[in-house]
Amino acid sequence: MQENHKRDRVVVGLNLALPLALAACELGHLDMPLARLFGGPAGFALREHWMLAEVLHGGGRVLSWTLALGLCLGVWWPFGWLRRLALSQRLQLAVGTLAAVITVSLVKNHNGTSCPWDLTDFGGLIPPASHWLGFLTPDGGSGRCFPAGHASAGFAFVAGYFAFRHADPVLARRWLAAALLAGFVLGMGQQLRGAHFMSHTLWSAALCWWAALALDALWRPLQRLQQGLSPYQGNPRLP
């Protein structure tokens, strides 16, 4: 399976692009300059904008969980594009999507970094600090703002690339593009509101992608094990 990953240009490309984007953002200290494009000492003007707060945030969350529920039900009752997948691939898609969400949530729950709108630069009470310090000690604010949880509502669906890439490579690439676009749109909406920095969104994308990649690397051996344990494989012939 690892050899398949090495030969897959999409996998290789994203495994290069994501670390480069993260390095540019982290080492270039781009978070604050980018956030200042949308906010200042008086806060973020678009924080309560209905399109961002109600449609992209509230509506996006409902849509994402509805789609995730549909993928789970589609494991046993496939519909639409899911009919092109075998049972094990549909299960991989559902598990991969949920695993990505859980991965981002676990990291968030163990990080005490506050949101940009809590910081003194943007009218809050908390001095700016590295989000890496948030794993050691809370910064005194609300915390749980790193990485971007809402963006993972889109990025989590990158698992579909691995589920579809053998059954329908064209659909797999389109699915991946749609998941990445959705994640960045949702993440950008939260950045405009002051809920996250750009690095929060990029780390969410990376964690979702690497969770799906790791699951795909494990899935083929599990399939072989399942086939080896199947009661229909290798049964002795009856006398």
N- to C-terminal distance: 40 Å
Helix content: 55-70%
What topology, given as strand order, has the largest sheet? 1-2
β-strand amount: under 5%
Main sheet: strands, sense, barrel: 2 strands, antiparallel
Return the structural class.
mainly alpha
**How many structural domains?**
1
* Overall mean pLDDT: 91
Overview of the structural elements:
With 239 residues, this protein is an all-alpha fold. The chain has one domain. The protein is 62% helix and 2% strand. The protein contains nine helices and two strands, in the order αααββαααααα. A two-stranded antiparallel ribbon has the order 1-2. The chain starts with a helix and ends in a 10-residue tail after the last helix. The C terminus is likely disordered.
Layout of strands and helices, then pairs:
Blueprint: H1 2-7, H2 9-27, H3 31-35, E1 39-40, E2 43-44, H4 50-76, H5 87-109, H6 152-155, H7 159-164, H8 169-193, H9 198-229
Antiparallel strand pairs: 1-2
Helix pairs in contact: 2-9, 4-5, 4-8, 5-9, 8-9
Please provide a brief summary of the model.
This protein is an all-alpha fold and 239 residues long. It has helices at 2-7, 9-27, 31-35, 50-76, 87-109, 152-155, 159-164, 169-193, 198-229; strands at residues 39-40, 43-44. The chain is built from 9 helices and 2 strands, in the order αααββαααααα.
